[in-house]
Amino acid sequence: MKRTTSTARLFTRCLGPASLAILAMGACSDDDTTTTSTVQLPPRIVVTSVKGDPQSELLAAIFARVLEDGGFRVGRRDAVDLDRAGYYQAMQDGSFQLIPELTGDLLAFVYSQPGAEPAPTTVVPTGPATTQAPVTIPTTTTVPPETTTGDTTADTTADTTGDTTADTTADTTGNTSTTADTSTTVADTTTTADPASTTSTTVAPVTNGRSLAEQIVAINAGLPDALVVTNGVSAEDKQIIACTATAMAANAEIELTTLTNLASIAPDIRLGAPQSFFDDEVAGLPAWERHYGGEFDDTVTVDDDALEAAITDDTADCFVMNSLNSLITTEDLTILEDDQLMVPTNAVIALMASTVATPEAIFTIDNLVSSLTTERLNQMLNQIVNNGADPVVVANAFVDTL
Question: Over the Cα atoms of the chain, what is R_g?
Fold first, then answer.
């Protein structure tokens, strides 16, 4: 057996892995001093919320949990008894690094600060909007296959001698197994049964200064260097119109997901709203006429304290309310999308200290965009406010489903 000298063994140790190079160099040197390597830990993200605000407490718990699951060092601080101005300054002083916010509210605050640039302006239509035709949801009736006892080859060839193109695109009268008209009746999209002649026109996104993306750009432009915001999720806290289950069922054959859809059938809809909505030039009925244009069959004044009874008594088909009103969950209402942004966006975001707002941290929170919807946030707040659930327990249950 070949023996290895002490010198050779020492030389072999000095050729260890690159990850241990510093320690190896220390061992191989004649110097008796010891070299210690230090691992730099990522900054700790201290998350807090506004005391007494269930929404803020719930969102803070959600943000803290997803960051922790993403491998970030997270600290949880008790809710702070501060208004927006108070925690805005506390974050710049380093007291904590993240707190939930809302885009519309924060945007207005940032540009109200002394010395701030003028707030970004939003574009408002000058005249009544033109309504679109109702979009009918196509229905297809499936007919059971016929039982054939004769020559199946003859049957299948004889039946196809006609003009099949004409059958599918020109005249479907009397053929209960084929949708009568596959074209969409809305002006911005046209689809025919023949794939070769399919055409579609995509309407440009609304760019009136009220969208989420535009708000995020404006907020970050107005924030001090010490602060930054995430890109937002789907959940919003703003005035919306929601329709009852009865109204949705009565209009099941009509596409009814947006306020543009609602305007198309407004002559058949009774709208309930507080008097302030009918008088509000900026975000009320006058604004509705400029953005959507539909004239309702009837309008009924319904104060907030009478809203539950009005829904139960079928006083109206659709109601104006806050998007996080628990009646949306308890009464099974459907929120319609404000697709023309009559009311500016007010989406959930995280206000963060720039020292911890790495692209990875922002991306982790932004990943909630499709799961943290207005409807889901409404349901969770209902559990907390009306059922007495712990915000942290509700937050953890939600994150466990992701």
Answer: 31
The vertex-297 CA angle with 295 and 303, nearest 5°, equals 95
Q: Residue 351's domain spans which residues?
A: 45-120+209-235+346-400
For the chain, the domain total comes to: 2
Q: Are 106 and 54 contained in the same domain?
A: yes
pLDDT at 20 over 60: no
Give the pLDDT band of residue 39 (cuts 50, 70, 90): low
Positive or negative torsion for Cα 364, 220, 46, 52: negative
Same domain, 225 and 247: no
Q: Give the separation between CA 72 and CA 237, rounded to whole angstroms.
A: 28
> For the domain that residue 304 is a member of, what is the CATH number?
3.40.190.120
Please enumerate, as own/partner, the contacts of 354-358 that have beta carbons within 8 Å and a separation of 24 or more.
354/225, 354/226, 354/227, 354/228, 355/43, 355/97, 355/226, 356/43, 356/44, 356/45, 356/97, 356/98, 357/228, 357/230
Q: 62 with 399: CB under 8 angstroms?
A: yes
Please state, in angstroms and rounded to a whole number, the distance separating the CA atoms of residues 291 and 298: 19
pLDDT-based confidence at residue 233 (cuts at 50, 70, 90): very high
The rounded distance, in Å, linking the Cα atoms of 358 and 352 is 10
Identify whether residues 96 and 229 lie together within a single domain.
yes
DSSP, res 237? -
SS3 label, residue 319: strand
> Do 298 and 373 have their domain in common?
no
CA angle, 392 then 377 then 98, to 5°: 55
pTM of the model: 0.75
Rounded to 5 degrees, φ, ψ at 397 are -65, -40
Percent of the chain with pLDDT over 90: 68
Domain-ending residue, one of 335, 354, 380: 335
Question: What is the spatial distance between Cα 240 and Cα 260, in angstroms, rounded to a whole number?
Answer: 13
Q: What is the CATH number of the domain that holds 350?
A: 3.40.190.10
Bridge pairing between strands 270-273 and 239-243 = unpaired
Q: Which residues contact 304 (CB under 8 A, 6 or more apart)?
A: 274, 321
User: Is residue 168 domain-resident?
Assistant: no
Position 267, amino acid: P
Strands 298-301 vs 270-273: parallel, antiparallel or unpaired: parallel
CB 356 within 8 A of CB 45: yes
